[in-house]
Design a protein that fits this description.
The relative contact order is 0.32. The protein is α+β, with helices and mostly antiparallel strands. It has a two-stranded antiparallel ribbon with strand order 1-3. It is built from three helices and four strands, in the order βαβααββ. The protein has helices at 8-12, 33-52, 58-61; strands at 2-4, 19-25, 76-78, 89-95. The chain has one domain (2-95). The protein binds iron/sulfur cluster (SF4). Iron/sulfur cluster binds at residues 41, 45, 56-58, 64-67, 72-74.
Length: 101
């Protein structure tokens, strides 16, 4: 499950390359979809916005307020339920440490 600001990362994972390789730390494992969305919006988005020097409202509020500002970082959501039939295959490498955010 991925959320992106412009869609470049999420779209490339579902149509285009013959194989997508995902390298993820164990900190990305969550129990369900709701937790995944919450984790992205409460942890990953603020940290990524800090890195990019963006300041959507969640940076000050400390939580997602479903903003409608130009710097909104959550615009494209992708949920991969199963491997697409023609062009994409996946290799997921799960690393036993916290990586990224
Ligand atoms: S929707 Fe807006 S407020 Fe919510 S996490 Fe994304 S950027 Fe932050």
């Amino acid at each position: 499950m991925n959320i992106d600001g412009s869609g470049n990362r999420v779209n490339a994972m579902t149509f285009g390359p013959r194989k997508a390789i995902v390298v993820a730390g164990v900190n990305k494992i969550v129990p369900d979809l709701e937790s995944a969305i919450r984790r992205i919006k409460e942890i990953a988005v603020p940290m990524n916005c800090k890195r990019l020097n963006y300041s959507p409202p969640c940076m000050a509020a400390g939580k997602c307020v479903d903003c409608r500002v130009p710097q909104r970082a959550c615009r494209i959501t992708s949920i991969i339920e199963w491997r697409p039939p023609f062009f994409s295959d996946y290799l997921v490498i799960l690393v036993g440490e916290n990586l990224g955010f």
